[in-house]
Amino acid sequence: VPVKKLAVPAAISKSKTDRMVPLSQRCQAAIDKLRNNVWTYSEMGYTMFAFYTREYSKHITVRQVERIFKWAGVNAIGRPVNPHMLRHTFGSKMMRVTNAAIVQELLGHKHLSSTQVYMHPNGDDLQDAIDNLNI
Q1: Where is the Tyr recombinase domain (predicted)?
Q2: Using alpha carbons only, what angle is made at residue 107 by residues 67 and 15, rounded to the nearest 5 degrees?
Q3: Are residues 124 and 74 in the same domain?
């Protein structure tokens, strides 16, 4: 059964509420590939952690993820990046294809003002808005 949504439990949510976030077909395929080729399955279900440490007995920590992103950013684009930058990129890219209320919901914000922090329009966005007005 393909994974179509990602559960965000209240325990890790800033708003302390459970929510489900839809996944793109590309993300669904990547998760299915991991599930079928990497993660192990037992009678109790899939292994407890999606990503392990080198010992395979513990999940990777937030700090380890931050270090991986920093290393990858420096090697790929010559500057460090962090996981939270993905959230800003997601918010900006979503604003180009849908309305603010949808982006607000996807980011899990109660208030639109919180969502606006994640919107970073560029010159092309401004020109596209004018061109799409068609007057």
Answers
A1: 1-131
A2: 90
A3: yes
Using one digit for the tens of pLDDT, what is the confidence trace for 103-130? 999 999 999 999 999 888 888 888 888 8
pLDDT in tens, 52-105: 777 767 788 889 999 999 999 999 999 999 999 999 999 999 988 999 999 999
Count of structural domains within the chain: 2
The single-letter code of the amino acid at 8 is V
71 and 134 inside one domain: yes
Q: Where are the alpha helices (DSSP H) in 51-108?
A: 62-77, 83-95, 100-107
Which pTM does this prediction carry? 0.73
